[in-house]
Amino acid sequence: MLLRDWQTGKGTALKVLRAGSHSLVVDALLENVITQVTEFLSACYGRSSTKSMSETRRKTWTSKTEKASSTPPELCCLPATSEAFA
């Protein structure tokens, strides 16, 4: 559900998981889980070095607007901000 809302497909999520660089430990402290999921979702959007969802969103927006010739991308194509995510 989380990825579908921002138009990143299940295939992308599975590809990132199968790459093996992101292990999700669900019995960790909430802060650690949020950090893990932020890294995972950022990787799904092709942003592996971001520290927050807001930074992932900004970098995704920047890359999409550089490519757009006339209209900016729809907001639903971007990841959530850190505030909306947590």
Number of strands: 0
* Secondary structure tally, helices: 5
**How much strand content do the residues show?**
under 5%
Radius of gyration: 13 Å
Tell me, rounded to a whole number, the average pLDDT.
75
- The secondary-structure class comes to mainly alpha
Uncertain regions spanning at least 5 consecutive residues: 1-6
Question: How would you briefly describe this protein structure?
Answer:
The chain is mainly α and 86 residues long. The protein is 56% helix and 0% strand.
Notes on the protein architecture:
Helices cover 56% and strands 0% of the residues. It has 86 residues and is an all-alpha fold. The chain has one domain (2-85). Helix 2 (10-19) packs across helix 3.
Key phrases:
disordered N terminus; mainly alpha; 5 helices; globular; 86 residues
Topology (elements, then pairings):
Elements: H1 2-5, H2 10-19, H3 30-44, H4 53-67, H5 82-85
